[in-house]
Write a structure and sequence with these properties.
InterPro entries: DNA/RNA_pol_sf, Rev_trsase/Diguanyl_cyclase, Viral_Replic_Matur_Polypro. It is built from three helices and no strands. The protein is an all-alpha fold.
């Protein structure tokens, strides 16, 4: 099947609250950047 994302990890990310500080935003973008190959249009979403 190739490389896939663990559905449990996707669910965990979906349950996170919205980042409210610069530090929280950077942390989230760092995590999301790790999965960028699975997110269509990631560069536009991250702006």
């Amino acid at each position: 099947e190739g490389i896939t994302v663990d559905p449990a990890k996707v669910e965990a990310v979906l349950q996170w609250s919205t980042p409210e500080s610069v530090t929280e935003i950077r942390s989230f973008l760092g995590l999301a950047g790790y999965y960028r190959r699975f997110i269509e249009g990631f560069s536009k979403l991250a702006m």
